[in-house]
Design a protein that fits this description.
There is one protein chain. By secondary structure, the protein is an alpha/beta fold. It folds into three domains: 62 residues, no CATH class; 254 residues, Type I PLP-dependent aspartate aminotransferase-like (Major domain) (Aspartate Aminotransferase, domain 2, 3-Layer(aba) Sandwich); 96 residues, Aspartate Aminotransferase, domain 1. Helix content is 44%, strand content 12%. It has 16 helices and eleven strands. The strands form two sheets. The protein has a seven-stranded mixed sheet with strand order 1-7-6-5-4-2-3, with helices on both faces. The protein has a four-stranded antiparallel sheet with strand order 8-9-11-10, covered by helices on one side. Strand 10 and strand 11 form a beta hairpin. The chain is globular and about 65 Å long. Bound molecules: pyridoxal-5'-phosphate. The site of pyridoxal-5'-phosphate (PLP) has 14 residues, from helix 6.
Length: 447
């Protein structure tokens, strides 16, 4: 199975053809999950001592398993945060897979690391971080946030003899912040928010003074909360972090992409003062799963916190090179920033700006359509491309039935969310192929 034979050659053609056909589908089928019992009957016996051969395995995937996976890039997939890779990024993922690149060290992956750093530099420029900033691509926002917070704590503990153990954020911060705190045995302190749902310097300051600022090592501001797309008041939060000497982390996993959209760039004022920042190109920057850009203002602090030391690694860690693995949790890494880099370089950054602006246009249309219909109400004014709204008179069961029906009819995938105990509908629009007509059709289905 390591030899390249005629059979391999034939399978290669079939796999490339499958990938090409999948990429050409317009529209892609939405598809639907199947039960374990259903999949057992079609695939339960697939794993055998003798093997079924590549062609049969591919057919099994194509006919039975792939249709049991939702197409996240379907234009009417508006749940959670979707992912709509560019054709270039999706195709190049195949190349990365075929290339046996180790993305953890410069020694082994210099060319790939160079390219990834070029893509990171573009993001750092959007944020307004200095040239000396840097980081790496990690698997997702969860690992990105955890890695940044570990660096924050290591840095704080190296500077003081107190052992700060707290992180401040709002209730709107992503679940991965609470998860990171659990992993680190840190305490997450929630700063209250007002009507606008934003973290502000003023409220942060009150909490820090009440709780004792020396017990904190980081503040997490969100640039685009997952549920509502709220961007915290980054400038006033930066002021307070500076006043108390606290690490300022900005979680832009979803919303960070908006930095490339001139029409909303002003909402991020103050982001350039962060100590660390993340954005998931697999959300609103059109890269395939899984890809999070993690950046530090001063990467030497991250290197001090994350570099793994062992006799068998000395040859890497004693070199002055840029080793991506030194900036996050984890050692072995796929060069997962390469598909994003390839697409950026192929299409140019203007195409990214245009694609993000297009999703904002459709989000604006959706918000107006919701406001115009008497059976719907916008719950919170839109900041980015997430819209949360109410169907007047519906119970939680009504929302669920409606959502189930859309999936059963294969017209859309829109799951309900909740806020303050109320079940609500929510659109997350990050796919430039989502159209006004898709939105109208879904809203009509709620009449
Ligand atoms: C999605 C998201 C995360 C987590 O990112 P993953 O890539 O799913 O691990 C963190 N923060 C925010 C604001 C998010 O939207």
């Amino acid at each position: 199975m390591h030899e390249y034979t005629e059979v391999t050659e034939q399978l290669g053609r079939q796999i490339l053809q499958y990938a090409q056909e999948r990429l050409a589908l317009d529209p892609v089928p939405l598809d639907r999950p199947r039960t374990v019992a259903e999949l057992d009957t079609v695939a339960g016996e697939a794993l055998t001592a003798g093997g079924i051969g590549g062609e049969a395995a591919l057919q099994l995937f194509e006919n039975e398993l792939a249709p049991a996976c939702l197409s996240i890039d379907h234009p009417s997939y508006l749940s959670f945060i979707p992912c709509a890779p560019t054709r270039e990024a999706a195709m190049f993922d195949l190349v990365v897979g075929a290339s046996s690149i180790y993305g953890g060290s410069w020694l082994e992956g210099a060319g790939a690391v160079y390219a990834e750093n070029q893509a990171l530099r573009w993001i750092a420029g959007l944020v307004g971080l200095p040239k000396s900033s840097g980081g790496s691509f990690v698997q997702g926002g969860t690992i990105g946030n955890l890695s940044a917070l570990v660096t924050a704590r290591e840095t704080a503990r190296a500077r003081t003899t107190t052992r700060p153990y707290r992180v401040a954020a709002t209730v709107g911060s992503h679940s991965s912040i609470a998860s990171a705190c659990r992993v680190m045995d840190a305490e997450l302190v929630q700063v209250p928010v007002g009507e606008d749902l934003r973290l502000t310097g003023e409220r942060l300051r009150e909490v820090l003074i009440d709780e004792g600022p020396e017990s904190f090592f980081a503040v997490v501001a969100t640039a685009g909360t997952t549920n509502f797309g709220v961007v915290d008041d980054l400038a006033s939060v930066a002021d307070v972090c500076e006043e108390f000497g606290l690490w300022f982390h900005v979680d832009g996993a979803y919303g960070g992409a908006g930095l490339a959209a001139p029409s909303i760039r002003g909402r991020y004022a103050g982001v350039e003062r962060c100590d660390s920042f993340i954005v998931d190109p697999h959300k609103w920057l059109f890269a395939p799963f899984d890809c999070c850009a993690l950046l530090y203002r001063d990467p030497t602090l991250a290197r001090a916190a994350h570099t793994q030391h062992a006799s068998y690694l000395d040859v890497l860690t004693e070199a002055p090179d840029w080793n991506p693995t030194d900036y996050s949790i984890g050692l072995t890494r796929r060069a997962r920033g390469l598909p994003f880099w390839f697409s950026l370089v192929s299409n140019g950054t203007d195409a990214y700006t245009a694609a993000i602006e297009r999703t904002l246009e459709v989000a604006d249309f959706a918000e107006q359509e919701i406001a115009r219909r008497d059976y719907l109400q916008v719950v919170h004014e839109r900041t980015l491309s997430v819209i949360v709204f109410r169907r007047v008179g519906w119970s939680p069961a009504d929302y669920q039935r409606w959502s189930d029906r859309l999936l059963a009819e294969q017209t859309a995938f829109v799951v309900p969310t909740s806020h303050d105990g109320e079940t609500l509908a929510r659109f997350a629009i990050v796919n430039p192929r989502t159209t006004e007509a898709d939105i109208t059709r879904i809203l009509d289905s709620m009449a």
